[in-house]
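Sequence in, structure out. Go.
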Amino acid sequence: MSNRVRRLPRLLSALFAMALAPLAHAFDPFVVRDIRVEGIQRTEAGTVFGYLPVKVGERFTQEQATQAVRALFGTGFFRDVRIEVDRDVVVVVVDERPAIASIEFNGMTEFDTAGVTKSLREVGFAEARIFDRSLLERAEQELKRQYLSKGKYSVEIVSTVTPLERNRVGVTFDVFEGDVARIKAIKIIGAKTFPEDDLLGLFQQSTPGWMTWYTKADQYSRQKLQADIETLRSYYLNRGYLEFNVDTPQVTISPDRKDIFITLSISEGEPYRVSDVKMGGDLLGLDDDLRRLITVKPGEMFSAEKVNASSKAITDQLGNLGYAFANVNPNPVLNREKKEAELTFFVDPNRRVYVRRVNIGGNTRTRDVVVRREMRQYESAWYDARKIQLSKERVDRLGYFNDITVDTAPVTGSPDQVDVNVNVTEKPTGMISLGAGFSSTDKLVLSAGLSQDNIFGSGTTAGIEVNTSSTNRTISLSQTNPYFTADGVSRSTNIYYRTLEPLTINDGDYRIKTGGLGVTFGVPFSETDRVFFGGTVETNSIDLFQNSPGVYEDYVDTFGKTSNAFIGSVGWSNDQRDSGIAPTRGTYKRANAEASVLGDLRYYKLTYQHQYYWPLSRSLTLALNGQVDYGKGYSDKPYPLLKNMYAGGIGSVRGFEAGSLGPRDRKNNDSIGGAKRLIGNAELLLPFPGTQQDRTLRWFLFADVGQVYGDSQNIDFGSLRYSTGVGLSWQSPIGPLKVSIGQALNAKEGDKKAAFQFQIGTGF
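Output:
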């Protein structure tokens, strides 16, 4: 037999070549004098050598040649592999597959390029990888699948492969996205107990309507359809239909790929009542305590919602006792003749565990200690689900992070230990500003400032603010240390100088200059309660002019052009909101009392504010705010005009000019504020279109009520002003921004209205 290997025809497939290699390339064994590789362009020769089962000086056999061919084919780098023998020299001849040098997309607007590139990598198609036609087809199918999930059934994808130097290719996907397929009709077959229209009203998806241009509810989505089916299932299960069933949904598309038709076939079954409620398993001697958590009662119609809530309550209670992996399995046993269900909650507490470590991650700037000191779940302590949730809420209320996640991971090899992992996503907490702006109230505003809510990642707030507007010029230095002491006593220091001029809505002229230095301490009395006390030394001076309001002339007659005061304050706050940035549930309560105890002024002021956040659904939140302020003078002194409160505008009653409500000056009818104030606000917060996961950007519908009353006036509810409208809130990098368009509902003669208003730096 010749020492030269016989060549197979080029048209034989690679797989056939491997199968027949031992027969077609037969040669006598020999000692290898040299090894040569031919045909490589990108692949290193050493890579080929690594797959050869022989080295120079060793004996080479037919079996080893077959093994080498198979190994090299298995790499996927080559389209063809041959082993030839040339006078005791092994010649490996390869035909390389090209590598993917670049991947580009044309016409793709629905998806982010980085995200699509990542998904293609997961199916094996990425830059620097070997190009294969089958992988290209998989990439096209994956890209098309993503468009179908968005309801774009008319999408067309054309791929172009361009050869490049050094045996590489560039791949371009030309995407013709087309229009989103709209839901033309949804039918539910088999609904007998409840009207079909009522059931369809439960769905996220719907046929086109007057608001679907905004909600996109008429755009088909497979994920949303599955969610709607689960909603339908829950609706029936909550009403006792334990044997309810939904067949596989039938989804058809019109020939032009623009209309979707959905048909759901359901079997309702019969409703069941609960005949008895029992508990089984290992109850840890807590039978009575756990039984009280069950809200399902015998004789009631079976409700999956109540059953699941009871199971969760038991699981949470066991979690609070250290049983992090407790399972509660409700098991209904059906009596089909009586249409009754005997319900048993099987409890498996599993093992009790303690926390080995609390790990903080994602904080690139904020120090670990800032997050760790808010944790109420301690290391080497029993696991407590309630404390973990409280810890998450406390970290969220810091306001330093856009997102906080807390998860529990078992410790490998230690069944009684877990690690608690806290991962945060930081948000900008500092601002350097220098420039000009425009306020709907103060017109031109020139400002410069440096502020940092989390300076050097320490959790301390410090800032300098310079503001010049048409009515308010301020320079202020402030610093707050939330952990002035190790046990959480805070200290806030503020030194300021302000010059106040009349609002642009007033005609009278005056100048008020105020300087002060204040220190306030906050003492935590519980996880959510804090008591504040402090004092401020303040001096005020007033410059009057010929057209100054009469009340300012009266003030100067009583207190003089210059007045000094030492103002003491004490307050209390209770914060049970789930977030300090964009709350969706919980309450916030605040009470404060301040009084001038030394100096020229003699007054006291009481304030109480209550906020309530109620989640109506996963995306809707009802926010309520109420505030009452009451001020009074004593020691035969009137309530000082400089401490008057104002209403109107963002933060009080939108739709009216800022600070315009309440008493007016007898001389020129200017708004002068008052010593008593009532404010009420209601907002329905909704996610902004396309940003359902971004809780910092929301729009809202609002209704406001409020009024201000003079020192000698009684509170008259009949004089309250009302407004309603729509607005947008955004936690912008330079502070909370609110924009509103409001309509005053019961404006009286002389009231000053303002439909469009905006403000940066306001809260509720």
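Check: Confidence is low (pLDDT under 50) at residues 1-24, 432-448. The chain is about 15% helix and 40% strand.
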